Amino acid sequence: MDPNHLELIEEVRRIAPENVKVEFSGEVIIMQAAPSAVHQRNLDHVARQFAGHVPAGYFSSQNSGLASPQVRKSRTPDLTVLPEDVPEGENNELPAEAALIAVEIVSPSNPENDWVGKLRDYPLMGIPLYLIVDPSQKTATLFSEPENGRYRTREEADFGETVHIPQPFGFALDTSVLLPYI
Which terminal Cβ of the chain has fewer Cβ within 10 Å, N or C? Predict the structure, then answer.
């Protein structure tokens, strides 16, 4: 990553309010306000289901920065699962290719960030699974099998149905507990 970009990102993080997330994708800096209560409750429901299926030697983490300097991307998924011995880099960021999954609860104010930007970036960053929970559409969508910079497979479920989360997790995510945005 260009040192000037790193300086710019660090300056934006320094001056951004505490409740604002800062991400970087190519030449674009993305800033987002703190999430709503519905967002946080849905994240908690999903995180609790993953908790019982995290492989030995791994931990789940909310809002950890994942960096992929080789493709010039830095993203902060709502939930990810990483090796316990993952090395921490600059700005407390972790290597994206170490993540087993990225989970996003779509924000009503910026759905394009999750459905377009992160769907483009996560396979390039080497993240094998990407789960999008969209309370506006009342869906949960799992993308998997990254190849040539995109995910090859997609499984979508309406709230109330289940989504099969493959190994190394190996469970059915229950979406009936998820809340829609009003």
Answer: C
Between CA 12 and CA 147 the distance in angstroms is 33
7 versus 107: the higher-pLDDT residue is 107
What is the DSSP track for 24-46? EETTEEEEEPPPPHHHHHHHHHH
H/E segment holding residue 48: helix 37-51
* 3-class state of residue 141 by DSSP: strand
- The structural domains of the chain, ordered by start, are 35-174 (3.90.1570.10)
Distances (CA, A) of 152 to 99, 139, 145: 18, 19, 5
Q: In what order do the strands lie in the sheet with 58-62?
A: 58-62, 79-83, 101-105, 129-134, 139-147, 150-158
* Predicted local confidence at residue 92, as pLDDT: 77
Q: How crowded is the C-beta side of 120, counted as CA atoms within 13 Å?
A: 11
Average pLDDT of 82-92? 85
Return the pLDDT at 149. Answer: 92
